[in-house]
Design a protein that fits this description.
Blueprint (H helix, E strand, L loop, with lengths): L2 E6 L7 H16 L3 E6 L5 H12 L5 H25 L4 E4 L6 E3 L8 E4 L2 H8 L3 E5 L2 E3 L5 E3 L5 H11 L4 E6 L20 E3 H9 L7 H10 L3 E5 L7 E4 L12 E17 L4 H11 L4 E6 L6 E9 L4 H13 L4 E14 L9 H11 L6 E5 L2 E7 L3 H11 L5
Parallel strand pairs: 1-2, 1-9, 2-6, 3-6, 9-11, 10-12
Antiparallel strand pairs: 4-5, 7-8, 11-12, 13-15, 13-16, 14-15, 16-18, 17-18
The structure holds aspartic acid and magnesium ion.
């Protein structure tokens, strides 16, 4: 008998009808002769409203109590899903993260899994139960409830699949799989049959958020092959797996866009050792997450340092850098808003030349100006005007023949 782990996200369990739909799908899987472990998220919107509730009673809720609160979202879903399956005449049982054996470190609200020994889970499976596990939650060694960061049910599913050595891990969501680009932006975007772990990670960090990044990292580390597919139809999804030779024949796997970016420039800083360190130490001390960094060529002994970040981080910038700018005798702190990031991703970039040129050419023909460029082994990203992101995504998607 093979063992399948299925994860259903918040939208897939968003109301009682949908929970019954999940119950039917799970039973179908068991009827095909498989052992089934189901990991569920909180019903859509529940985690957000719990966070809102907390803020209404306290401006600074303790993280320990946040975890106790947030874990209730998934706990509701496991009970309802188990009840739905039982009402359809099959045997299901719910397990919290702790009962499933998920042990984490003590970093509340973004804990890391440190151990997973699914003793109860294996026992119930052996007795023929469908096991319904609460995603997103775990427990420290000293029995404090923890959560695994937003989107953490994905991580629960991947980690359980690794621990029980599942034959198949399926991530059910509200989209058909991973696309060459967001179909709402590029209507001709195509669903990918397969994608490598690294490409999936780059897509996630470039704005195409289908899954929690940490869960993809975990899957890569432990070699857990998984499929992303829809819970609303029976279409095959996208297989995410280790890179294969044939994947390199495709130059670009996908195009990602990320809105809401901003660019900060420290103008005319003296070009000598330690200046960049001063700037970015101050940025880091203020817990500001940045993305691209560019330092220009020095002309008159001074240089400009620019970096991009999410627009939401901007309010922290003045406080973080105001003083530093004076201390290093830079000319000014400039902020440019209304920009976005357009990225192309593909393992084929390693072995093909002229990829960046082709991207830039497509953008130039559309009259789109490039503000900044950054590259990695399997990604080329540009910063452009936010209002041109959709057009840019379409022309670049077209240039690489991704609709075919
Ligand atoms: N319910 C949690 C969240 O909304 C975890 C998850 O859905 O994966 O982030
Ligand atoms: Mg989710």
């Amino acid at each position: 008998m093979s063992l399948i782990v299925q994860k259903y996200g918040g939208t897939s369990v968003g109301n009682p009808e949908r929970i019954k739909n999940v119950a039917r799908r799970v039973i179908e899987t068991q009827d095909q002769g498989h052992g089934v472990v189901v990991v569920v998220s909180a019903m859509s919107g529940v985690t957000d409203s719990l966070i809102k509730l907390a803020r209404e009673v306290s401006p600074t809720p303790e993280e320990r109590e946040m975890d106790v609160l947030l874990a209730t979202g998934e706990q509701t879903t496991i009970a309802l899903t188990a009840m739905a399956i039982n009402a359809m005449g099959k045997k299901a049982i719910s397990l919290t993260g702790a009962q499933a054996g998920i042990v984490t470190d003590g970093v509340h609200t973004r804990a890391k899994i440190s151990d997973l020994t699914p003793k109860q889970l294996k026992q119930y499976l052996a007795e023929g139960y469908i096991c319904i596990v609460a995603g997103f939650q775990g427990q420290t060694k000293d029995q404090r409830i923890t959560t695994l960061g937003r989107g953490g049910s994905d991580l629960t599913a991947i980690a359980i699949a690794a621990a029980v050595k599942a034959d198949l891990c399926q991530i059910f969501t509200d989209v058909d799989g991973v696309y060459t680009c967001d179909p709402r932006v590029v209507p001709t975007a195509k669903k990918l049959d397969e994608i490598s772990f690294d490409e999936m990670l780059e897509m996630a960090s470039s704005g195409s958020k289908v899954m929690q990044s940490r869960s993809v990292e975990f899957a890569k580390k432990f070699g857990v092959v998984f499929e992303v597919r829809s819970s609303f139809n029976h279409n095959p999804g996208t297989i995410v797996k280790e890179e294969t030779k044939s994947m390199e024949t495709v130059v670009v796997r996908g195009v990602s866009i990320e809105k809401n970016q901003a660019k900060v420039t420290v103008r005319a800083v003296p070009d000598h050792p330690g200046v960049a360190a001063r700037v970015f130490t101050a940025v880091a001390a203020a817990n500001i997450i940045i993305d691209m960094i560019v330092q220009n060529v020095s002309h008159d002994g001074t240089t400009d340092i620019s970096f991009t970040l999410n627009r939401d981080e901007l309010p922290k910038i003045e406080a973080a850098l105001g003083l530093v700018v004076k201390e290093i005798a830079a000319k000014a702190l400039e902020i440019q808003d209304g920009i976005g990031k357009l990225s192309i991703i593909g393992v084929g970039m390693r072995s093909h030349s002229g990829v960046a040129a082709k991207m830039f050419e497509a953008l130039s023909q559309a009259g789109i100006n490039i503000v900044m460029i950054s590259t990695s082994e399997i990604k080329t990203a540009v910063i452009i005007e936010e209002s041109k992101l959709a057009q840019g995504a379409n022309v670049v998607h077209e240039a690489f023949g991704l609709s075919k």
